[in-house]
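Sequence dictates fold. Below is an illustrative record:

_____
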Amino acid sequence: MIAEKKYILATTVQEAIEQAIANKGNFKFLAGGTDVMVNKFQGNETSGCLIDITKIEALKGITKQGNFLRIGALEILEELKFNADLKAEFPMLIEAALAVGSPLIRKTATIGGNVLCENRCLYYNQSEWWRESVGYCLKCSGDICIATQGKNACFSELVSDTAPALIAMDAEIEFIDENGTSRKKLEEIYSGDGVKPRNLSETTIVTALYLPLNRSFKTAFFKLRERESLEFTSLTTAVAIDKNNKLKIALAGVDPKPVVVEGNVNDDKEELIKKAVKSARAVDNDMYSRKYRREMISVYLKRSFERLS
């Protein structure tokens, strides 16, 4: 018997959440689709119901609200470069957005979708027959991490490029679920568990990202990947220094969650780099080796500090 497949086009946040509750355990929200649909094609996503949220106007727009710039979760990555406020105060976010995938992907992918993109692993993001022949891992209901041979933890990696840029600039995230609206620091939504990488309920809808205005950020952004116009990140580094000399480092691609190091511009840079490298739980589940990616953390952060000096 073939399971029923459903497609629901929601026009309000409330309608989307109601449909999510009604289909709990068997649905995915759909925005740009550049992550969800690829995972469905590979058999890594098997939900029978897609709830399309692209028509919800409340999730769009970039506006100033008090001391923050509010970026709607459905804003398209490619279009961020046209916003005057982002160009003036947060050019690193534009740089990060333009580092995602290919031009075709960026014209569809949303910023909310990118900060929520599913963690990736060389042994997980393969076709169904490939995963079956190798053996199912922890992330696809197996009993072992193929990369480490351990049975207790999945080390699939956070591969968002916009997340480290946003986190380095103290971004906050706003979301709604069946319990109401919440807002917290962006880095707090990531669990560090590769199987369930976010501390959000299944029915949660991210509504917006908030960036603090008037901080005069100086920034540096680097991304490591095999092919510039296509690959997911093997390492993304973002560094921001504000007008009060607060320094914040955020990394992706080398841990199931963002690696975050905070300090002051006068702190010993070598110690900050050591702390970042030590915090990164990279394993050999990427096209680049664990050793090389950890070495590149130091290279990119040194380059960042040189640029910002």
